[in-house]
Every structure is written in C-alpha cells, then in structure tokens.
Amino acid sequence: MKSKDIIILKKILDYCNQAEEACQMFHNNYEKFVNNSVYTNACCMCVLQIGELCKLVSDELREENVMIPWKQWCGIRDIFAH
Fold this sequence. Notes:
By secondary structure, the chain is mostly helical. The protein has one domain. Helix content is about 80%, strand content about 0%. The protein has 5 helices and no strands. The model has no long low-confidence stretch (mean pLDDT about 95).
C-alpha cells in the first residue's frame, strides 16, 4: 500500500469517527437528524469528505479491496455536492 493511501485511509477513518460522534450526540435519532441542521450538516459533510477522499485512493488499493464500493462513495459525494 502506498503511503498516500495510508494518509487517505486515516482521514476517511477520522471522518467516520466524526460522523459517529455526531450520531451519538443526537442519540441516533432520525427525527433529530431530519429537523436539526447542525446534526444533518455534520453527518453530510463527513459523507461528502469521505466521498472526495475515495476519489484519491490509488487504483492498486481499489483493486485490492473490491468489496468496498469505491464508485458509489464517489457518486454519493457528487450527489451531496451538487
């Protein structure tokens, strides 16, 4: 694995942890997610950033980890951003 990929994966993990923290703060409550812009934006920004980072991983990493839906992660980023 390339050192660039390690850095990217660490950043992805950090955003996953941030999203989990936001969910815990709001007790994983769907109604709060829908009605609280702070909660919604926190989670959506994390997903957007993860999708952006997925675009940067090497082809080698993608090929070694075919069970990860890389293309879908990149696509959800595009949906959130546009």
